[in-house]
Amino acid sequence: MCRNGALFVDLRVTRWFGNEEQLPKGRLAVFSYAAAALTILLLAGFWKLQVLETGHFTDLAERNRIRTVPIMAPRGRMLDREGRVLVDNYPSFSILLLREDSHLLENTLPQVAAGLDLPVDDLREQITAAAAEPKFQPIVIKPEATQADIAFVESHRADLPVLELLMVHRRRYPSGGFLSHAIGYVSEVNQQQLAESNGRYRPGDITGRSGLEREYNDVLMGADGSRRVMVDSMGKVASTLEDTEAVPGQSIQLTIDYDLQAIAESDLGDKQGAIVALDPQTGEVLAMASHPAPDPNDFAVRISSAQWKSLTDDPEHPLLNRAIQAQLAPGSVFKIIVATAMLESGTPAEDFTVSCPGYADFYGRTFHCWQKGGHGSVDLHKAIVQSCDVFFYNVGKRLGIDRIYQYATELGLGRRTGIDLPGEQPGFIPSPAWKERVYHQQWYPGETISVSVGQGAVVTTPLQMAYSIGGIAMGGTFVQPHLLKDFPSVHTQRVPLREETIQRVTDGMFGVVNEGGTAATSRLPNIELCGKTGSAQVIGYDTRDRLGKAAEFKENAWFVGYAPRRNPEIAVAVIIQGGGHGGTVAPVAADIVKAYYEKKQHRQQNQTAVNFLSRTEPATMVATMEPR
Amino acid sequence: MPERPKFGDFDWWLMGIVGAICTLGLLQIYSATHNGNLAGMQWKQLIWIGVGITGMLVFMRLDYHAMLEQAPLLYIIGIAALLAVLAMGHTRFGSRRWVVIGGVFLQVSEVMKLIIIIVLARFFSEVRTEELTLQDLVKAGILVAIPALLILVEPDLGTALALLPVAGVGIYLAGMRRKHTLTVVALLLVLSPVAWHLRTHLKPYQQQRIETFLHPEESPRGSGYQILQSEIAVGSGGLWGKGFGKGSQNQLGFVPVRYSDFILAALAEEFGFAGVLVALLLYLGLVWRLVESAQKAKDRAGMFLVMGVAAILGFHVLVNAAMVIGYMPVTGIPLPLMSYGGSSTAFVFLALGLVMNVRMTRFVN
Question: Would the pTM count as exceeding 0.95?
Answer without folding.
Answer: no
